Amino acid sequence: MTAQTPLSQRPLVDTFGRHVTYLRVSVTDRCDFRCTYCMGEDMVFLPKSEVLSFEEIQEVIGAFVARGVRKVRLTGGEPLVRRDIMKLIETLSATHLASGAIDELTLTTNGSQLSRHAQRLAELGIRRINVSLDTLDREKFTAITRRGRLEQVLEGIAAARAAGLAIKLNMVAMKNVNEDEIIPMLEWAHGEGYELTLIEEMPLGEVAGDRVDTHLSLRSVRDRIAERYTLTRIAKRTGGPARYVTVEETGGTIGFITPLSHNFCESCNRVRLTCTGQLYMCLGQEDRVDLRRALREGGREGLDAALERAMILKPKGHDFVIERRSAPAVGRHMSVTGG
User: Fold this and answer.
1) For position 144, which CATH number holds?
2) Is 298 inside any structural domain?
């Protein structure tokens, strides 16, 4: 009779048989932008005392890696605005990436701080990043972000490319906002050697305006692109929910993230850690497990027990729907859970 595998070594498998191998970690809820679909205009951010320390983030990530997580993505808010963030990335790189314990350490950014950090990120073994970019129109960019400068972001993207980082642009597709820019963005991105992923707006948090007015189904967008270009579906997987096609005429790829028009939950391998230590097993559900409390009260054993509870709570899928005057699917803003 073989001994039972200790909790600290068991793979993380939910009740539907899905292995959790991808952890997204929000290192801050703060951001230097206020994107209209992500935040309220007058956001009140958390006091620093409530945010996980770098040591606690390292401990939690270590517990996940020991149990089979192979990919870690740092998010925010905007991750690169957290003070001394490069010290955390240096430690994670040395501890998990250089040793081969994880396959990839990456981040999602709005690009505003990339000019300062891109070269160091590449030196630390980060090979690709996601950059949020919804428009190439300067006035529209300022309107969407409420305070961002397009030139600053484009300079950051150029610095990342010069440092050798592969770049995937994330574009939230919005009716009557930027839908006329989708094909021009595709052409520009592929011409520069960047991938492009289109994302349907998600009903998270109270924001200005009614999301019904801006919701754009990516099914119709794909049909529109296919009228001009030859799209070929490919089996590309990056650990996330996107489904990819190649554009034969440009040689580039487009990803589609469709939480409303095409649910992608059947193969979900992801969980999300907020900057306060709350683990959400689904972006579209409110169930969570307090890993900060588990760690502070029970150490590694308490953390592993909490991860077991999380796997039991992980739902089969989200229930996103956008209807006029309806409340958001969940009350928290996207910036709370991590973009």
Assistant:
1) 3.20.20.70
2) yes
Give residue-wise pLDDT tens across range 146-186. Answer: 989 999 999 999 999 999 999 999 999 999 999 999 999 99
Report the distance separating Cα 15 and Cα 133, nearest Å: 36
**Cα separation of 272 and 281, whole Å?**
6
Is 202 labelled as part of a ligand binding site? yes
Report the C-alpha gap between 72 and 157 in whole angstroms: 21
Check whether 73 is labelled as a binding-site residue. Answer: yes
Residue 91, in any domain of the structure: yes
Check the annotation: does 168 bind a ligand: yes
Cβ-Cβ contacts under 8 Å for 44 (sequence gap 6 or more): none
| 38 marked among binding-site residues | yes
pTM over 0.85: yes
37 is in an annotated binding site: yes
Q: Is 237 annotated as a binding residue?
A: no
- pLDDT 10s digits, 225-276: 999 999 999 987 766 678 999 999 999 999 999 875 455 567 789 999 999 9
Is 219 annotated among the ligand-binding residues? no
